[in-house]
Design goal:
The protein has one domain (2-86). It has four helices and no strands. With 91 residues, the chain is an all-alpha fold. Helix 2 (33-41) packs across helix 4 (63-86). The longest helix has 25 residues, at 2-26.
């Protein structure tokens, strides 16, 4: 009986980790411009900027001009991760 309860508790505690694993696996592709636009739409308005001083409204207002930079940056991160996964030196 005690072992069964411990198993249920462990299963309950591992559920958030399983969801996180599923989310991380879903990021195993190059981020599209559509996904970037969707993410920017979810940024909250009138929030204090981070230490970089960039407000969410500034990101939203300049998204079209920043899109190539953001896209290339994310593709570079993706490729770097893929290189490191297979053991290829990136630099």
């Amino acid at each position: 009986m005690k072992a069964s309860m411990q198993h249920q508790e462990l299963t309950y505690e591992l559920q958030p980790l399983q969801k996180l694993k599923e989310q991380l696996n879903s990021l195993d592709h190059v981020v599209t411009e559509h996904e970037i636009r969707q993410a920017v739409k979810t940024l909250k308005k009138k929030k204090s900027p981070f230490v970089d001083g960039i407000r969410n409204e500034m990101i939203e207002a300049s998204l079209e001009s920043l899109m190539p930079v953001i896209s290339n940056l994310l593709i570079s991160f993706y490729n770097l991760e893929k290189c490191q996964t297979v053991g290829v030196k990136a630099f």
